[in-house]
Amino acid sequence: MFQDESSPLSSSSSPLQVFSMMSLSPNLGSPYPWLRELKSEERGLYLIHLLLTCANHVANGSLENANIALEQISQLASPDGDTMQRMAAYFTEALADRILKAWPGLHKALNSTRIALVSEEILVRKLFFEMFPFLKVAFVLTNQAVIEAMEGEKMVHIIDLNAAEPAQWVALIQALSARPEGQPHLRITGVHQRKEVLDQMAHRLTEEAEKLDLPFQFNPVVGKLENLDVEKLRVKTGEALAISSVLQLHSFLASDDEHHRKKSPLGSKNLNGVHLQRALQMNQSTLGELLEKDTVNGCSPSPDSASSSPLSSTGSVKIDGFLNALWGLSPKLMVVTEQDSNHNGSTLMERLLESLYSFAALFDCSESTAARTSLERFKVEKMLFGEEIKNIIACEGTERKERHEKLEKWIQRLNLAGFGNIPLSYYGMLHARRLLQGYNCDGYKMKEENGCVVICWQDRPLFSVSAWRCRK
Amino acid sequence: MPVDVDNYSTVSGDTCGSSSGNQNPPPKFTIKKKRSLPGMPDPDAEVIALSPKTLMATNRFVCEICNKGFQRDQNLQLHRRGHNLPWKLRQRSSKEVMKRVYVCPEPTCVHHDPTRALGDLTGIKKHFCRKHGEKKWKCDKCSKKYAVQSDWKAHSKICGTREYKCDCGTLFSRRDSFITHRAFCDALADESGKAQTDPSSEPDPKVLVVESSPSPALQPAPPPVSAPAPVEVQVSAPALPQSTSAMTSVMPIQSSELAVDPNSIVEEAPAPAQAGLNGSCSSGVSSVSNGSSCSSSVFASLFASSTASASLTPPQPRAFTDLIRAMGPPECPADLAPSTSIEPISLCLSTSHGSSIFGNAGQERQQYVPPPQPAMSATALLQKAAQMGAAASNASLLRGLGVVSSSSSAQQENLQWGKRQVEPNNASVAAGLGLGLPCDRSSVLKELMMGTPVFGPKQTTLDFLGLGVAASGSPNGGLSALFTSIGGGLDVDAAAALFGGGDFKDVIRRS
């Protein structure tokens, strides 16, 4: 009967008509052969539609519908396909994971034999560093800020909150040893969970320093950043301190959010629904505007989602504590690199929307960087992007570590914690721009906002770098 | 015959040998015979050291009778015959039989050492000219200069004759260098079928060589695999063509850039700043382990302090350029977005439209085989979906689709949805569905609609469609409207379940 209703479209061979001609057979299990006929654009659009549908169902708790949607998506999504297919694959995996968390026993059982291969994780991070310019730009800007802040300083101490990539500091060592006023005495303290990584870093850096005859010392601090005791950093008086935080601060925002209780696992539910409804009703227009702006230029002012807008909410205790601790060290400089997207919305759909845009940009990046058959690309997408997506979508509360927020929020936070913004130097930005140009890929863009740098893909901001000093 | 023989004995310390029969003032210095390196045919050969003047002298062979000089010994002999020498004198001294080797008079030259003497006089003359002489001969077609006339002649014969031209514009007169270059040149206009040395356009799974061990990253490992074929296309070869022709100090940077290329993770020219790149350039293979060290050198160059090495900076962009050209098409597919999204949103994307996408994709420049369907970027798709969600312009399309109206549920405030403020669900659902992919959603719809006659309210649908989309008129752009639409139908289910206390929901607990 669908057919009856459908008026013939322009061309008789239009796929749509084909669709409408298809019987609306409710056998869900049967493959949809015509799905394969879809062109990539249509397929992509359909995937988006399905993803939203599915997420909606998941958010509502209507699992059967979600299942249907997942089934359909699985016919189309593939980690080997085009960007939308890949994205869909990872997003549905995240959604499915989310659903599964409702049955904790089942979830744990399915993950019981999953071992995190450390070597693979390390490799993937290195791949990300090399394939994409984001970290490199961040390093360039950080280093330049350090060099400038440390002009005239004889004793320089750098704390790297995630000491995984030696390249950054190698470059700094080279730059510092070549500076006109002579070499400083350099100390680098690196924090990381894995001892092997720190050992490797130590080796590499001391090797480089010895080559250049720079007095150098590397202090490893093994452990999780959130458990960091600043005493361990051994900051001495008289030395100039610089702190580098690359994509580390957002995990401090993870907390047992009030909005998501145990009883409403799948997102906004009846209990908090009321709160949410009120809160979100207030924000409807902003969200709508947000999305509209999203469509226009991909930049989204942070929607004041209920949970994260009041900075003094419960979620911020940890971060405030940490920032205060850092402030207590009186660093001369702190450079913060963070993702510049709002993935910390309180509702699933908010986060899904935002992350769809952000990861679309990232996957497009990836598409322009490597071949579809590239194993490295697959690894980065699966183990880095996929895991982030899973965390954003499927996890809640303290488990959800990937709480990316927009730059404005970070600026607010850091201001509150007693830091004052230092504009990034022109010279550094020049270097960074050259680096981006070197990638010879038109998509990368760099914007400057109030002295901070935002690295975008096309128009979508992805990462931000900002420099701070201790304001007394 | 004045024979100025400045005898300086070398290692052997023997008495010096005699000089040749030159009468000319240009003195010859003979050195005692020295044992020469392997490869020299005659260890007993007489080593002759000529002064530069002598070496360059054109008339080396001088008739002892009349002092006439000749360029060739044979000519001298011919001439001597004319003097009617008595038989005894006619014979040349026995030393003619002895093999002679010559050393280069330039002290800094490696061939100055008697053990590295060259066996041929002409050879040593040419060597001296080439290496230590002034380049007086210039090719008129190109700008190459030569010190030896024969070199110059040989070159001008072939200059411009046979030229192989790579697609990137580099010219080669030699087939082998052309082929080598082409293997690495990124400007492969055609697909993989091109050069014989252009193997896979796909990256090899060899990538796994990278391994997980972090330690390799520490050593700038010399290219373990450099010797074998310069096979991998994935090598960020773009750097190579330019560099192979000019192996300058820029190479280190470039090769370090190479290390950054993700595609060629396995094969990359190694390391930083060693001149040993020359060999590896053409093969350009190494293990990824160089990645970090290479990238560090990248940074090193990047971080040249403000006072220093401004000269380093220029090569970098080029290096990056060369390198990164390998990474992908210069024009990102996202560029397709504007054009395509403006198109009538009718999803009856005919093949013609599809082919326009093909046409736009600048994929041919990629090193890897472009995907059969150059897809729109995800960003573009999202934007399009957003637009379609809010689309007001395709009411007719929606009508045509016979889009089902949604349930009659007037639950606008989806408790879950809050953000939507669309009133007429029907319209919104229709709009959502109007994405135009009325694929097999019937089952979903059925569940959603909770028994609402699917096709019944078509009339209303039409009306709503006519108005609805517009009426939904909230500033909801894009995807939110989409949500709205989806949610509209879902409301029914959800709401019912909510209030009905669907037990499975109670069971659901977050972990």
Automatic annotation (TrEMBL), chain A:
Segments for region (VHIID): 125-190
Motif residue range(s): VHIID: 156-160
Coiled-coil positions: none
Region annotated Leucine repeat II (LRII), chain positions: 200-232
UniProt key word rRNA processing: no
Keywords: Transcription, Transcription regulation
Region (SAW): 394-469
Domain of life: Eukaryota
Spans traversing the lipid bilayer: none
Family recorded in the similarity comment: Belongs to the GRAS family.
Name this polypeptide is given: Scarecrow-like protein 3
Source organism (scientific name): Hibiscus syriacus (Rose of Sharon)
Lineage: Eukaryota, Viridiplantae, Streptophyta, Embryophyta, Tracheophyta
Automatic annotation (TrEMBL), chain B:
Gene3D superfamilies recorded: Classic Zinc Finger
InterPro entries: C2CH-3rd_BIRD-IDD (IPR055187), C2CH-4th_BIRD-IDD (IPR055185), C2H2-2nd_BIRD-IDD (IPR055186), IDD1-16 (IPR031140), Znf_C2H2_sf (IPR036236), Znf_C2H2_type (IPR013087)
PROSITE patterns, per database record: ZINC_FINGER_C2H2_1, ZINC_FINGER_C2H2_2
GO MF annotation terms: DNA binding; DNA-binding transcription factor activity; zinc ion binding
Region (Disordered) location: 1-29, 192-229
Keywords annotated in UniProt: DNA-binding, Metal-binding, Repeat, Transcription, Transcription regulation, Zinc, Zinc-finger
Gene Ontology, cellular component aspect: nucleus
Zinc-finger is among the record's keywords: yes
Domain C2H2-type intervals: 61-83
SMART domains registered for this protein in UniProt: ZnF_C2H2
Residue ranges, compositional bias (Pro residues): 217-227
Highest taxon of the lineage: Eukaryota
Pfam families: C2CH-3rd_BIRD-IDD (PF22995), C2CH-4th_BIRD-IDD (PF22992), C2H2-2nd_BIRD-IDD (PF22996), zf-C2H2 (PF00096)
Residue ranges with Polar residues bias: 7-23
Keyword Zinc-finger carried by entry: yes
SUPFAM superfamilies per UniProt: beta-beta-alpha zinc fingers
Name this protein carries in UniProt: Protein indeterminate-domain 1
